[in-house]
Amino acid sequence: MNRFAHAAAYNGACKSAEALTDLIELSGTLYVPDSSVFVTSIDMDGCVTGGFAEDDEVNVSLLRDPEMIMASKYGTGRHVRKIEDEPYLFFVKKYPEHYIRVAKPVSQISHLQEISFVPTIAILLIFLAAFAAFYAVACRFGNTISALKSLIERVDSGVKYNFPDGEFREISEYIVSMYKNLDRTQKALNIEREKLMAHLKLSKRGLAIYSPQRKEILSNELFMQYINLISDKQRRYSEDAFEIPELYEIVEFLDDRQLSTEHRIETKTIQVNKNDTILLIHCIVFQDKSFEITIDDITQKEEQALIKKQLTQNISHELKTPVASIQGFMETILLNPNLDEEKRTQYIKRCYEQANRLTNLLQDISTLNKLDEATDMFVGEEVNLTNIVHGVLEDLSLKIEEKGFNVELDIPENLMIEGNYSLLYSIFRNLMDNAIAYAGDNITVHISCYRNDKDFYYFSFYDTGVGVDEQHLGRLFDRFYRVDKGRSRKLGGTGLGLAIVKNAVLFHHGRISAKNHQGGGLEFLFTLKKTI
């Protein structure tokens, strides 16, 4: 009991029960002016060794008290219980050799509760200060980003701009410099892309490039022409090439190489003979499994000298026939002055027919010569192809009715093109004349524009007539070439109609080919460029 005494003054250092117990342990003497505060020293067995204690606590172990149990486990403990009907707060702190317990009425410790909020308030103030600082930095950063965005937008639109002041000026200058470099690079890439596309359009090789998923990246119109020449049915998209039986070797090659884990360039080449045309098909698979397919027409062409020689012979032969007929009939009339009027009229009529045939022949030869050597004589203008087709059908309506033709049209209204009206008319007129002359009676003629891309119209013209042996397909567009020479002359053809069609198509930067239609008859596939 002699270790503890009441002090005359409160030294202000003990502001909590825990501080009070520490002070007791350090000094061994406590000055407590407040008589309501009770301090007790308890040994490790739970017995009171000094200080305040109720009478029944002196000789009883206190280790079962809740605050003592907590202190023995956690080093400190607290509990509220009543002494003489007044609640007291008991606080215990464990030391190496004893416990110190402080007790104070709950009603007199409000100032301690107030003090306990100070750390919380301090932490809250620190948090608010940090939040305010962060918000200020964020606003400043956001304003800078907005300024940079506005700057880039002004640069992009070509409006005059000034760099922002401050530490972000250097960053702004760097960003604008990078943007300008990127813009120049993008423009250069666009120019190269346009050059590549122009090359593909003018190329004499069909080309299609595909993604690893076999979706078209780009293709030219010649590729579409070739796959429709190979296929037995009409194909609208370059992806349809994988469904053509003649290309199954290419498909199998792609299946094998695209599943391979090796990343290297591999190639496959096949040859397809179809419709009297020999096509060389080449496939290249790249490291990323994208690929391209090219198609080349490698059909053997006659030597230019032989073509000219045959052309001269054909012209001579074609001119000789009507001239000889005219000469024979006129000679008969002159040598027989007493020829009856009916015979005379019949011979004159035949002379007139042969003269007309000669005139048509000379006109066709003249047209071909202009297409070969003087294409500038054909003036381009905006032409409605739909109206041209309807005009051809109207001009030939009597012959179409006589032959019992059923004409099916699948052409959009007002299909406009920049081209030469006369040549465009001759394309559809000669194809229709050819069907009327050679396809047979009571057939169907189908004319369609089955594809329309940025630069070209794609047409199909087929009949369901007798068709043509495949050995003749490759030469149908040759000048003066006839499948049945005797029948052709009897029907009055010049042998130049399809040659004119081919050259008129070429004048409009297109291509034309012929094949036997799957349902019977002859089919012509051709393209026309929208602007010449």
Main sheet record? 5 strands, antiparallel
Q: pLDDT under 50 segments (min length 5)?
A: 1-16, 26-33, 111-115, 486-490
Taken as a percent bin, the fraction of beta residues is 15-25%
Distance between the amino and carboxyl termini: 121 Å
Report Rg.
52 Å
Return the average pLDDT rounded to an integer: 79
Strand order in the largest sheet: 2-1-5-4-3
Choose one word for the global shape: rod-shaped
How much helix, percentage-wise, in residues?
Answer: 40-55%
Number of helices: 15
Number of E strands = 17
**Helical/strand content category:** alpha+beta
SSE order and pairing:
Layout (H helix, E strand, L loop, with lengths): L16 H11 L10 E6 L4 E4 L14 H9 L1 E8 L2 E9 L3 E8 L4 H7 L1 H40 L11 H34 L3 E5 L5 E4 L1 H10 L17 H12 L6 E9 L2 E9 L5 E7 L6 H32 L5 H33 L7 E4 H11 L1 H7 L2 E5 L5 E4 L1 H18 L5 E9 L3 E8 L6 H4 L11 H6 L6 H11 L4 E5 L5 E8 L3
Parallel strand pairs: 12-14
Antiparallel strand pairs: 1-2, 1-5, 3-4, 4-5, 6-7, 6-10, 8-9, 9-10, 11-13, 14-15, 15-17, 16-17
Helix pairs in contact: 4-5, 8-9, 9-15, 10-12, 12-15
Comma- or semicolon-separated keywords:
532 residues; five-stranded antiparallel beta sheet
Provide an overview of this structure.
By secondary structure, the chain is α+β, with helices and mostly antiparallel strands. Helix content is 46%, strand content 21%. It contains 15 helices and 17 strands. The protein has helices at 17-27, 66-74, 110-116, 118-157, 169-202, 221-230, 248-259, 304-335, 341-373, 385-395, 397-403, 421-438, 470-473, 485-490, 497-507, and strands at residues 38-43, 48-51, 76-83, 86-94, 98-105, 206-210, 216-219, 266-274, 277-285, 291-297, 381-384, 406-410, 416-419, 444-452, 456-463, 512-516, 522-529. It has a five-stranded antiparallel beta sheet with strand order 2-1-5-4-3. Strands 7-6-10-9-8 form a five-stranded antiparallel beta sheet, with helices on one face. β16 and β17 form a beta hairpin. α12 (421-438) packs antiparallel against α15. Mean pLDDT is 79; it is low at 1-16, 26-33, 111-115 and 486-490.
